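User: Reviewer 2 asked us to show a designed sequence for the structure in our supplementary figure. I'm pasting the structure tokens here. Could you produce the per-position amino acids so we can include them in the response letter?
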């Protein structure tokens, strides 16, 4: 049987970090063994499932590059199949209609509470087969009453559950719709899952699912339950801890590789290696070596990885993602300097793509004001003469390239007996609008002569006004 894993999110929100880690581990495992990775959308809860959420999940998977070999399958398209299996279980005596009314169930629970027993369905309707007026029955699975179910979990080892602790689970609601544990089992079976890798919040469902699989005469998949991800305060990671949605990380300027690299280390390690390319992850990852204790989410480490990937990825790759961020700001990067050159000039100096986009906007867009602090410090009377000379020199420069630009700036500084910074920094503020930019010669080359001259004029006008107002 071909090794097959799956990611089976319920579309009731965005794709969050925990889900993305489950998807990544399942994907890596399939890739490593030449198997198939399936995406299955578990949308049977019609009240909570939304189309936006399905789209958010698909978008998140695609942004992360976790492409699936089969699917997406939608459980709502498979109701006929679930009905068939429910009927099969009824026919073979492994399921039964339950006509208990709400009052009866409440009384059952009250009695158990009074006797200090765990609330559970007693199996009352196992022997009560007559329909009852006014009660739309549910269908329950006839769980074995004794014996032990041992989950041979790849991550946690053997976990034993007493059948006496498991009651007869509802597999179809009174309106006939199947419930989670039934649909998962049917799908895992039909889709040929060999490995079920999922969050450990599902561990308690596993013995129930195993019992249903056994009733269907199926071979069991291997189970691997992944440890929880905690926030820095030790509570389960949630919105309270900041971004948990994968797409929010994109919006905040992370590269997908950085997030994937971060996620792979949540619960798994390979010596003390921190940086893993996708190829290395596929080669080295193994679900058997996933740690069974919870891991803590560390935003600083993610930021450090992001900076690493911004620095070390190819300019083409970074440019593709930066273009998206510029597009979000209404900038069309094809209407300006070559984005590859912009990226090359910025790769060393940005922790996120948002920061890079913020600091690159001036390459593409004119501005109508200088950043106040930088202007106050640099665009003053003393800068008037150097800027005027620069303007004249730049206007007549033969070749508009970084090297001659650099020579010119140096020459002007020398001829005026000024340190290079006294000339370059006012020029930078004039051209970039702020005190930070890549090296001045590259900056000017990329902004282009026409815009540079316009911006120097704007800076000179600013200085003139300032001198007129307060004498410099
Ligand atoms: N749909 C379930 C969830 O989103 C996962 C089911 C499974 O992995 O078995 O939590």
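Assistant: Here is a per-position design you can include in the supplement:
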């Amino acid at each position: 049987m071909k090794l097959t894993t799956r990611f089976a999110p319920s579309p009731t929100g965005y794709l969050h970090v925990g889900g993305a880690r489950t998807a990544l581990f399942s994907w890596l495992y399939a890739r490593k063994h030449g198997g198939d990775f399936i995406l299955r959308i578990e949308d049977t809860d019609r009240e909570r499932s939304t189309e936006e959420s399905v789209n958010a999940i698909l978008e998140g998977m695609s942004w992360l590059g976790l492409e699936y070999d089969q699917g997406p399958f939608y459980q709502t398209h498979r109701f006929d199949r679930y009905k068939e299996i429910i009927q099969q279980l009824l026919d073979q005596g492994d399921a039964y209609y339950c006509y208990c009314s709400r009052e009866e169930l409440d009384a059952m629970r009250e009695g158990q509470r009074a006797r200090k027993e765990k609330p559970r369905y007693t199996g009352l309707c196992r022997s009560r087969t007559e329909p009852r007026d006014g009660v739309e029955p549910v269908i329950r699975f006839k769980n074995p009453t004794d014996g032990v179910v041992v989950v041979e979990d790849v991550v946690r080892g053997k976990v034993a559950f007493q059948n006496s602790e498991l009651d007869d689970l509802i597999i179809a609601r009174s309106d006939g719709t199947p419930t989670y544990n039934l649909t998962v089992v049917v799908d895992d079976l039909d889709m040929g899952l060999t490995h079920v890798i999922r969050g450990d919040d599902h561990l308690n469902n596993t013995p129930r699912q195993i019992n249903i699989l056994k009733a269907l005469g199926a071979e069991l998949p291997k189970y691997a339950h992944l440890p929880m991800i905690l926030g820095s305060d030790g509570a389960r990671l949630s919105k309270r801890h900041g971004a948990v949605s994968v797409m929010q990380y994109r919006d905040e300027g992370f590269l997908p590789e950085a997030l994937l690299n971060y996620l792979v280390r949540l619960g798994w390690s390979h010596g003390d290696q921190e940086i893993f390319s996708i190829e290395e992850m596929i080669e080295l990852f193994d679900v058997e070596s996933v740690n069974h204790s919870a891991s803590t989410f560390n935003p600083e480490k993610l930021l450090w990885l992001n900076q690493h990937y911004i620095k070390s990825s190819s300019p083409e790759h970074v440019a593709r993602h930066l273009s998206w961020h510029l597009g979000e700001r209404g900038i069309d990067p094809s209407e300006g300097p070559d984005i590859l050159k912009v990226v090359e000039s910025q790769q060393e100096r940005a922790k996120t793509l948002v920061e890079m986009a913020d600091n690159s906007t001036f390459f593409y867009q004119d501005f109508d004001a200088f950043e106040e602090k930088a202007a106050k410090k640099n665009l003053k009377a003393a800068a008037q003469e150097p800027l005027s000379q620069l303007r004249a020199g730049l206007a007549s420069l033969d070749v508009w390239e970084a090297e001659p630009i650099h020579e010119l700036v140096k020459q002007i500084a020398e001829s005026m007996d000024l340190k290079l910074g006294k000339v370059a920094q006012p020029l930078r503020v004039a051209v970039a609008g702020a005190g930070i930019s890549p090296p001045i010669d590259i900056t000017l080359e990329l902004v282009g002569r026409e815009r540079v001259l316009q911006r120097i004029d704007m800076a000179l006008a600013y200085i003139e006004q300032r001198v007129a107002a307060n004498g410099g």
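For the response letter, you might also mention the following. Residues 63 and 256 are 7 Å apart (CA to CA). The first helix runs from residue 17 to 32.
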